[in-house]
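User: Before I run my own analysis I want an independent prediction to cross-check against. Here's the chain; please return only the structure tokens and, at the end, one sentence I can use as a sanity check.
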Amino acid sequence: MKKLVIASNNKGKIAEIAEILGGHFEVVSMKEAGLEVDIEETGTTFEQNAIIKAKACFERTGLPSLADDSGLCVDGLDGAPGVDSAVYAQSKDAHYSQLTSDQNIDLLLSNLKNIKDRSAKFVCVMVLFDGTRIISGYGETHGKILSERVGAGGFGYDPIFWSDDLEQSFALATAKDKNKVSHRRRALDDLLKHYQNS
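Assistant: Structure tokens:
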């Protein structure tokens, strides 16, 4: 089975990808591959950021690398936080590691206080780079933003994202149920389809 490095240090994300791809690849984290760096995301789109991370990871490890860029797009906020989802609440002088998911959630809920349209979607672009090919997949999952946190599971914005598919917040869903309908699952399925046909 081919070894595949996940270009991320997000434990929740790595576990989710490993659960989905376990039958196709031997999934290892950047840390397990001997790489302990934060790859700077300088792109302006999900796809650009995923390509940057996959290539940077391959260049440092020599192993096929998979990167995703994903985020929450809220209709009532013109698609924000979008590509800035992970650093939504970050001030210009704050260091990335000081930021927590709770701060991002608090800012989002505050910005939605007087907005009626709370429909939203999680978007994910997955990119696999093996030194010669860039293979990408796209996925999204739809729902709405709740007015308060519901559930203690998941990570990121999961406690305030109501999934239309599951009819509950992602933070209430089991990992198994979430992985059936998540944006990451759909992007991986799309990527695998392109990978098998390449």
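Sanity check: The mean pLDDT is 91.
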